[in-house]
């Protein structure tokens, strides 16, 4: 876990206008900045960035958040990675509780990572320049139907045939970073031989830079232009690159994925580039390895609809089965995962060129849902007329259903399997141990869960909105004010107490963006209010303070009136007379306070 104090300090140092401005063209419009929303298609700008609130909000689709939230939504980064990205931009080092490296060792590791990243960037620039002066490579790409524009978009290049061509890009060819980044092979280090056995890994190949979600080159794929072997050569795994975690073309495809509403997962670099050329820029590819759960997780950060495309041969079926296994832990009621099997002797590129984009779109639209593919796989042996065949289908299905989280989708699969194997859903669930009771240890009564609280209303809602907008005002909330609001609305009072505690913990420099980020981690109950405040006009802290005092005063007046009515409706005793007069005096004091404050404004 990253300490909240660090996140607060980070948000105080970054400017959301700069962060968003790297990806969205912004124009000043009053106190805020405006632009076209990057999260949905629009022709008129409804996307605003507030330098005062340090928050973005789209009036069209409702997207909103801090600088951290923007990087997560736009770049598909996880929470920690988004924080690290922001921290790196302002020269901060993210402390992690599980990071036991001494500061010197951590700095050394970061310096090494920077050196590898610089080497990959320089090599990518070199290969790109080499392509411009390589007519045979240009002719090959043209033969494959690729234009210079699409080659530039994917920063494609060419590795010359020489053994040490990278000497032209790296004055120090003996630099260890060249070996550790996978650009150069050092046989001397491997064999303990002559120090002159160092040579380029990639020679006479079309080069495909592999970029991470931040756009940094972390590896390469190289393709031969003739019948040489291997057809594709990939960078080895390095501190920058783990092939089971990266997808080719994801950086380039992010906006297209949002626009298309789905991502198309293919099997190779050329599929991605060719499909982009042919009108399907939402394609990505695994890197010469089976699809992994990490791949699926990255895709799910971009879209809820994933279509896997495979060749229709036996190898394609095996690859599809591995993709199915990777999907199971992420499958759910709000996710759509499909499997497209192309006709024999076709890849996506050849199919689109022969049959056209509309025909390919039809294939995508009619691709096999995960549920159907799973059932086909577990019943592939087709002997359901025998007890042994039905038992085999259940045996095949058990680990797959166990990998899925409880959901309506899993329930539907259980019912389909039960029907096909002449059992009941309850018997399947019991046999597969899908419905195990969870023992709960005795514990004290807990406060209402976040999701079970009703939304605050009236004055307490107004107070909560003011405190979220200007959390420094939490210092004005004494125990008497909190108690009064809790009496008016127990649920609203519980929310308010949590809010005041979070705001006070941030100290005198608290602001809306910092508090919004803390509340996001606390639960979803504040999200609607945060979105409403993001859409509101700017809150002036002095005016908000006056409003807050007025709302608290109205709450106290409401409670006083209620108690006075209760006393007046019953038999008055000497004690109740005294209490009634005290309440009247307090009510008059509060009313006079309101008049005085109104006159001073």
Automatic annotation (TrEMBL):
Zinc finger (CHC2-type): 37-61
The entry's keywords: DNA replication, DNA-binding, DNA-directed RNA polymerase, Magnesium, Metal-binding, Nucleotidyltransferase, Primosome, Transcription, Transferase, Zinc, Zinc-finger
Occurrences of domain Toprim (ranges): 261-343
Cofactor note: Binds 1 zinc ion per monomer.
Enzyme Commission number: 2.7.7.101
Catalytic activity: ssDNA + n NTP = ssDNA/pppN(pN)n-1 hybrid + (n-1) diphosphate
Superkingdom per UniProt: Bacteria
CDD domains the UniProt entry points to: TOPRIM_DnaG_primases (cd03364)
UniProt keyword Glycoprotein, yes or no: no
Cofactor: Zn(2+)
Annotated function: RNA polymerase that catalyzes the synthesis of short RNA molecules used as primers for DNA polymerase during DNA replication.
Subunit relationships: Monomer. Interacts with DnaB.
Family to which the UniProt record says this protein belongs: Belongs to the DnaG primase family.
Name of the protein described by the UniProt record: DNA primase
Organism annotation: Noviherbaspirillum suwonense
Gene: dnaG
